[in-house]
Amino acid sequence: MTEDTITHHLTDSLLMAYSAGTLPEAFNLTVAAHITMCDECRARLGAFDSVGGALMEGCGSAALAEDSLKATLARIDVAGPRLPRATAPAPRGVLPAPLQDYVGGDLEAVRWRPVGMGVKQAILPTAGPASARLLYIPAGAAVPDHGHRGTELTLVLQGAFEDSVAHFGPGDIEVANEDLDHTPVADIGADCICLAATDAPLKFHSFLPRLAQPFLRI
Ligand code: ZN
Ligand code: ZN
Predict the structure, then answer these.
(1) What ligand has the least distance to the C-alpha of 197?
(2) Whose atoms come closest to the Cα of 86: which ligand?
(3) At residue 116, what are phi and psi to the nearest 5 degrees?
(4) Ligand nearest, relative to CA of residue 184
(5) Could you state, in chain order, the average pLDDT of each consecutive group of 10 residues for the chain (218 residues)?
(6) CB-count exposure of residue 151 (10 Å: 0-12, 13-18, 19+)
(7) What distance in angstroms lies between residue 101's CA and the mean position of ligand 2's atoms?
(8) Could you point out which of 122, 130, 153, 181 has its C-alpha 20 to 30 Å from the C-alpha of 70?
(9) Ligand 1 centre from 20 Cα, in Å?
(10) Ligand approaching nearest to the C-alpha of 39
(11) Distance (Å) from CA 3 to ligand 1 centroid
(12) Is 86 a domain residue?
């Protein structure tokens, strides 16, 4: 994959939150996967990481309540989400390295479940308020028309799709929120595989997807 074909990147606020470690696990994974595929966002992240480090150093020492260390350690002890980190680009395979850790291998290890109309999904084991799934959209097929109650990050891993916003190819990421209604349609000629992370259920506009929604956990 050549990074110079990526035209849709992460927002500053996502990179900052990733650098600060405040994203839910599903978003963290999606950001890590994009950064692994994208030189430009990896460089921008480096800048945010050094700003964050400088801020920490500038804090100096503050008087702390005696039990604050204990309280902090106790909080760390609570099983928090795993925080996948971006790595250098994977040498081979469709799935970037942070994603392969979740799947237990590359595409051949994905356990797809049909969701109708030829579309398949595999929900990934992430903790916290957001969920992540791999989506397999056959060439020319569409994800039903929907809106968003929160934020949806969609990272293209293979193939491409188009919606009312733009055309998204390998490595591109779409950030959708409450303002956007869309019907992503996979390009003719290649099946499209995406990683999608959402922090709230989608708003499907037609009856059948709405009916199936609880079972699909989407
Ligand atoms: Zn990027
Ligand atoms: Zn969407």
Answers:
(1) 2
(2) 1
(3) 110, 150
(4) 2
(5) 78 95 96 96 92 73 60 53 62 86 94 90 94 96 93 97 96 96 95 96 84 78
(6) middle
(7) 25
(8) 130
(9) 18
(10) 1
(11) 8
(12) no
